[in-house]
Design goal:
Blueprint lengths: L23 E5 L2 E7 L5 E5 L13 E3 L2 E3 L6 E2 L5 E3 L17
Antiparallel strand pairs: 1-2, 2-3, 4-5, 5-6, 6-7
Bound molecules: FE2/S2 (inorganic) cluster.
Length: 101
Amino acid sequence: MTAYVKNLWYMAAWADEIAGEALLARTLLGKPWLIWRKADGTYAMIADRCPHRFVPLSMGKRAGDMVQCRYHGLGFDGTGACVHSPFPDGPPTHVSAPAAR
Ligand code: FES
């Protein structure tokens, strides 16, 4: 296991790596992250792991500012909150992907 210095800034990506509809999968500090550019020009960075069945969210697709999991279709916003469900009960409020702080 690699030890990392914490409480420091680390560069996650170059601006051109997250341009347009790109989904960037990147391992930082030993953890998989997903980074993308939102419509307002800010970025989103959440765990690259669907909290449902642990599929990498980077295998999914963009739908506006949301990332939709390729496996069952749950959608997550830039905070990691589940905001879309293809199932009739709506998005589960207790499911979220950890977001970078
Ligand atoms: S594994 Fe992502 S929605 Fe089920």
